[in-house]
Amino acid sequence: MSWIVLHFIGIISYSATGAFVALEARFSFIGVYALGFITAFGGGLIRNLIIGVPATELWEHSAIFTVFITLTIIILIPLKWIDHWRRWGLFFDSIGLASFALQGAMLASEAFSNDLGLMILAALFTGVGGGLIRDTIAGRKPLALKEEIHAILTILCAIPIWFGWSSPLELTLIVLIVIAIRMSAIHYKWRLPLPCH
Amino acid sequence: MSWIVLHFIGIISYSATGAFVALEARFSFIGVYALGFITAFGGGLIRNLIIGVPATELWEHSAIFTVFITLTIIILIPLKWIDHWRRWGLFFDSIGLASFALQGAMLASEAFSNDLGLMILAALFTGVGGGLIRDTIAGRKPLALKEEIHAILTILCAIPIWFGWSSPLELTLIVLIVIAIRMSAIHYKWRLPLPCH
Amino acid sequence: MSWIVLHFIGIISYSATGAFVALEARFSFIGVYALGFITAFGGGLIRNLIIGVPATELWEHSAIFTVFITLTIIILIPLKWIDHWRRWGLFFDSIGLASFALQGAMLASEAFSNDLGLMILAALFTGVGGGLIRDTIAGRKPLALKEEIHAILTILCAIPIWFGWSSPLELTLIVLIVIAIRMSAIHYKWRLPLPCH
Known about the structure:
Chain A is mostly helical. Chain A has helices at 3-24, 29-51, 61-76, 79-111, 116-137, 143-146, 149-162, 168-187.
């Protein structure tokens, strides 16, 4: 499984979560397209803003087209099919989280000569930024700020990049570990409460 | 009616909608200024961020001054006068929507050599971006995501620009068509529901 | 008391207000870090976007590290100690407001050859921008838009910079005046209602 496949699974998953939030908030079909695009590209937009890379580098035709097709399918197919898809949602969403965070860490590593602090910030905002804007626009408490697992996993993605991992095999291994931790956290209901609060 | 006149009617209408949302949300007079400026310039700011043009190009003195005067008048005049103005609000707001979307499409057309996908995205975010930020800050469901007409009209504005329309006469014609469709949509209560949902 | 000390008191106060909002909104410890960083750097990020300065200039290691330590302390210490700190909160927050607004006005003054309109906008968004994003993400009505004192003080900071004040002594004097006005406004419950509304 190559890196580019993971990247597209990530974009598709993220745009789909935007669409589902829009459907739940009873937005119109334009809301589905808008929240889908915002979730898929919002994290990258904030990251590029933070690390000083022009946003125009985000606009690959293949990515925009993939998001557009994904959202059109979600609008057209009956709701109960979507419910079936949802069971797979967290699995694909974990792939998205990992591929976005890895991308953020790698871009920051290039731009700031492997500065760990900024790599973690870039991985964090690329991984959870799109969902943060999505939830804020839809008037919901951002999922990424209520559950700690998303953010911890983005930080976990930044560290191996800092150590120099970059081959497709190594990146795929990180994605698999992220999926395993995320699924275990959901299954065993892991929580990390605040001390003394 | 020249293009620059439409542009200023757009800026005035958009800043006024920001002011009205702030008054309804019971913000202080600072909230009126802040939401007014955010609604008038927010869409252009997001668009410039997306298409990689410096935000500094937005800051014309005449536009900032016009918004400032508009908001000061709204703060000073009695509320019942504003109610009278409101009947005209949707009319002016349609001019704003069209002039903002056209501007977005034209700027994206220059920056990306007439790429339709990005022109539609730029027209959409210029046209509805300011209102999106305004409603999110005021804690309301964004109007542009609940009703489909705004977004459809922005896309409708991008297409003639793609075909090369650029003379003041052609642009004014688009604005008139947008006003006609918007007013008809409101009068006849056109809706475009999601299929199968 | 030197300028750099005021700047760090500002960053610490602002990140702490972000952490307290996150704790009240029952976010996880990741939410505390995220809102803390967003409040401390969000205003500067919007300002740099507006005045066309790369965001990368915000990332000094000392500032990032200071925010990180502040937030970690807030997460680790018991809540009742925080309550004690809170009594000092508004005092430190006033220092933050003044130092952020002054910085915004000075940066805009350099970038736009002392243009008062843009200096006021930059002072305003640097001073209240972080809190605006913080409150919007946490789903609260933004404090800066409900109370007029914050924004008035940021404008008050821009004017002496416009007149050419720049020495540490002059800047410290502005900070002291801002603290005095803010504390008086809170103590005597000064309000500036909208006319005719």
